[in-house]
Amino acid sequence: MTETTTRPLTLAIAAAAIIGGGAGYFGGTLSTPDAPVAMAQQEAPQGEALSLLDLDDASRDALQGEMRRYLLENPEIIVEVIGLLEAQQVAEAAEAERQMVADAADDLFNDGFSYVGGNPNGDITLVEFLDYQCGFCKRAHAEVQTLIQQDGNIRYVVKELPILGPMSVEASRAAVAVLIEDGAAVYERFNDTLMTFGGQLSSQVIDGLAQRAGADVTAMRAAMENNEEIDERIAATRALAGALEITGTPTFVMGDTVIRGFLPLPQMEEAVAAVRNTAN
């Protein structure tokens, strides 16, 4: 065999050596340009698997020695194999993520209680998991609003996911209370005032921001005290985040794509275009 024709076999053997100490490879003899290795007449028929466990000690030692020599002489193969394995792992993770999104699609896109903005009839839905004390969420806020306004055909869903302490929880509970008591328009303004606020949140600050947004603060606080649905909604969103392995904010979902972390506007636009191209 030539170097060109033996390279796929060499890569397979190298992968086996790296992963499991050479557990086996597909039939044929291993050879390099200058050193064929005898298989002690235990070569498997073409297309059938041959395991090192099928070899006698001498043949196994000869094969393992040849594998080691070849890898030492051609260390770039190890890098290549690692690259192939990493690419495979990335592909498998992406497929697993797509399946998670598909399994949670109803709760993600149509749970019946999350705020829905943008174009309610948009051709794609952008879901955002956010926390009102998250600095990257605040950075993303203006970018997301610009994206929605400029595009004009994005349905936007907000998932309240308070993960940064008690004041995050209180702010999300207040936002859900405003959505229940005052409706989507006031919630949208309250969400914006919370996201654009640059200071430290407190109960008094939350009340002031709610009042600035036009919310009925008394009704908001009463709901936070008495309406169990508020905590149920946040708990449902936490469970959804767990199912999607979301551990940080902001996290976005578009189509079957999960975007974990802040993306500048140009990259968000590219992601929207990619989702649309896939859908079409």
UniProtKB/TrEMBL annotation:
<keyword id="KW-0676">Redox-active center</keyword>
<keyword id="KW-0560">Oxidoreductase</keyword>
<feature type="domain" description="Thioredoxin">
    <location>
        <begin position="85"/>
        <end position="277"/>
    </location>
</feature>
<keyword id="KW-1015">Disulfide bond</keyword>
<dbReference type="InterPro" id="IPR036249">
    <property type="entry name" value="Thioredoxin-like_sf"/>
</dbReference>
<protein>
    <recommendedName>
        <fullName>Thioredoxin domain-containing protein</fullName>
    </recommendedName>
</protein>
<dbReference type="Pfam" id="PF01323">
    <property type="entry name" value="DSBA"/>
</dbReference>
<dbReference type="InterPro" id="IPR013766">
    <property type="entry name" value="Thioredoxin_domain"/>
</dbReference>
<keyword id="KW-0732">Signal</keyword>
<dbReference type="InterPro" id="IPR041205">
    <property type="entry name" value="ScsC_N"/>
</dbReference>
<dbReference type="Pfam" id="PF18312">
    <property type="entry name" value="ScsC_N"/>
</dbReference>
<dbReference type="InterPro" id="IPR001853">
    <property type="entry name" value="DSBA-like_thioredoxin_dom"/>
</dbReference>
<dbReference type="GO" id="GO:0016491">
    <property type="term" value="F:oxidoreductase activity"/>
</dbReference>
